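debug: dumping io for the single-chain case to check the tokenizer round-trip. Nothing else runs in this session.
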Amino acid sequence: MSGASRFGQQPSAAKLFAGSSNQPITAQPLVIKNQKTGETWVTIGSGRYLNSADLDKTKFTTQTWYGLRDTGSTITSRSQLKQRKLLSTGAASGVPVEP
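debug: decoded output
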């Protein structure tokens, strides 16, 4: 890509975080910018939720959604992360979503 990105800087790619082999990242990361602070965040998730079989608690492993603040440094350990919990429920495209 040539020219400046919509964030005002030349785009670049570098490893930000390495998940674990039992929680592969399954979708394209989403990059967002906090309009109040100017911080860049990258959101990613592991696992899937494609159909009702994915809700079978006897077969599923814990999956994770990450919101990573991109400071230009690699996050080298999960110990550098802070756990947060989703506290509300709702619907996405008419499908119920629960934490």
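debug: round-trip ok. Residues 46 and 64 are 5 Å apart (CA to CA).
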